[in-house]
Amino acid sequence: MRFFKRLSYCLVLGMGLGLESQAQEEWDLRRCVEYAIANNISTKQADVQRRISDLLFKQGKKAWIPTADFNTNTGYQFGRSIDPTTNLFTNQQLLFQGFQFNTNVTIFNWNRITNTMLASKYEAEAALADVESNKNDLALNVATAYLTALLSKVQVDIVEVQVKQSQSQLNDTRKRVEAGTVPELNAVDLEAQLARDSSSLITAQSTYELNLLSLKALLALDAGAPFAISVPPVDRIPVDPIAELEPEMVYQMALQNQPVIKANDLRKKSLEYNIKSAKAGLYPSFFAFGGLASNFASSNRKITGANFLGYNAPNPANGAVNVNGTLVPIQSPNVQITQGNKNFGELWTGWGTQMSNNFRQNIGVGISIPILGGWQSRTNYERAKLNLANAELVIDQGNLQLKNNIYNAYTSAVAAMQKYNAARSSVSAAERSYNFTLRRYELGLLSTLELITSQTNLTRSKIDMVNAQFDYVFRMKVLEFYKGQGIKL
Q1: Where is pLDDT greater, at 478 or 362?
Q2: Which residues contact 209 (CB under 8 A, 6 or more apart)?
């Protein structure tokens, strides 16, 4: 009796948990799929890759824009060095500053930039298709997990009915035992059956909870968060007629609407343009260039009356001035030389004049001819062709796998439908048999073992029918998914 008290407590607790679950907000399949798409990590990663590809495409579109850079430098040099304004050697200490602007634009490179841009464009579109493919796969996985959890929930309901029936029969038999109309053995047999049914109920409930955890993992939900799914009547889930899901027709439609097929085709186009771009690297390219520059050096001083830059101490022996390594005669009083230590501000004297006098420009065109580069350009071209060959194999493999999946789903759907029809007939026959057995048992014409056997057969038939029905619905939904109708219950 203590065992049955504990058993009753477990059943009451289980029903209490069931009521609590029913009180929670229930999630239907649509809500599960939308939440998974918004929160699943793999979907977010696919979207990040899509944005990276989009950035590369935007960068490729700007490759025709001329390059330009501006450089400036300021410093102090000493010892034997080259004066940046005269390009002559000097031993003077000097302060220098320079400015330089350069630009370069490609004129013609055998459409290498254009082909690279188009390759990036198709790669960006393929990445977008990858996001949609990831969403589709996730929706299918969520639907599978949802239907699995739904099936286990229905199985829990079936076993709960079985437990209630066993409990009711045990109560009725106990009354008969107390009245002396049936032996104690009948009640003992029913007690054992109730224990087995209770164990089956606990197993079914555990399976249901595990399936819910799997579904929550796909949704990226906290494992400890309250969660319950809605239970639509499985016989009211709409499915297309099997005649409208002929596998070859579904396969041809899948080739047109499945994002993974679209992504593979776009990547093939991208690789074709990569080949053209790599081939262009084998040929000369033409470009134009231009530049502006000027500089200043503190060693430059104006010599009054002479058109020379730079000075040094006069040579009293020959009456000449050493100007940057060149002896220049002093024609006094037309030449006036200033020398001596200068402070920092005076070192910048003449900056504007020098920047104006040293201002220079350049413009021109050029050609770049690849001759020897470690065979890199040729290797890039050959590798691009191999990448395309591999992409074609991926497409063939993907199409073959898609076709096999569709034919397998169709064959399984037909078998599941036939199995479901047979299971319905089996349940109908098992119910009639159980009803007859129960009446004869109540009249005392059958043993408890025969009643238990008939009841077990009925329960097993119901579970088999539910399994076949859910399997049939799932296979049909897979075919509808490949047809392009999405997943819906």
Answers
A1: 362
A2: none
Q: Write out the two tokens for 391.
A: 């992409």
Structure tokens at 469: 């029905």
**Mean pLDDT, to the nearest integer, of 385-397?**
96
| 358 closest CA partner among 104, 96, 102, 103 | 96
First-to-final CA distance of the chain: 46
Whether 450 and 103 have beta carbons less than 8 Å apart is answered as no
Please, are residues 104 and 285 in contact by the beta-carbon 8 Å criterion? no
Q: pLDDT at position 20, please?
A: 44
Task: Kindly tell me the number of DSSP H helices and DSSP E strands found in the chain.
Answer: 11, 11
Nearest of 425, 459, 358 to residue 154 by alpha carbon: 459
Predicted confidence band of residue 341 (pLDDT cuts 50, 70, 90):
low
Asked if residue 205 lies in contact with residue 167, where contact means CB atoms within 8 angstroms, the answer is no
pLDDT tens profile 413-426? 899 889 999 999 99
pLDDT tens figures, 79-95: 888 888 888 888 888 89
Residue 317: count of CB within 10 angstroms of its CB: 6
Give the CA count within 13 Å in the CB-facing half-sphere of 235. Answer: 5
- Tell how strand 94-108 and strand 67-77 pair up: antiparallel
Sign for the pseudo-dihedral over CA of 176, 182, 185, 190: negative
Question: What are the b/e assignments for 341-366, b being 16+ CB within 10 Å?
Answer: eeeeeebeebeeebeeebeeeeeeee
Question: DSSP string covering 391-410, please?
Answer: HHHHHHHHHHHHHHHHHHHH
Q: Which residues contact 84 (CB under 8 A, 6 or more apart)?
A: 96, 98, 295, 297
391 pLDDT tier (thresholds 50, 70, 90) = very high
Distance CA 424, CA 327 (A): 119
How is residue 336 written in tokens? 């006036």
* Residue 386, C-beta contacts closer than 8 angstroms, at least 6 positions apart: none
- Read off the tokens for 311: 């000075």
CA distance 240 to 410: 12
- The amino acid that residue 327 corresponds to is L
The residue among 261, 292, 268, 257 whose CA lies nearest residue 391 is 268
CA-CA-CA-CA torsion sign (163, 169, 172, 176): negative
Is 323 a residue whose pLDDT tops 80?
no
Q: What is the pTM of this model?
A: 0.76
342 pLDDT band (50/70/90 cuts)? Answer: low
Q: Which residues contact 125 (CB under 8 A, 6 or more apart)?
A: 266
* Mean pLDDT value of segment 344-368: 91
Closest CA to 344 of 80, 56, 94, 27: 94
Instruction: Tell how strand 326-329 and strand 320-323 pair up.
Output: antiparallel
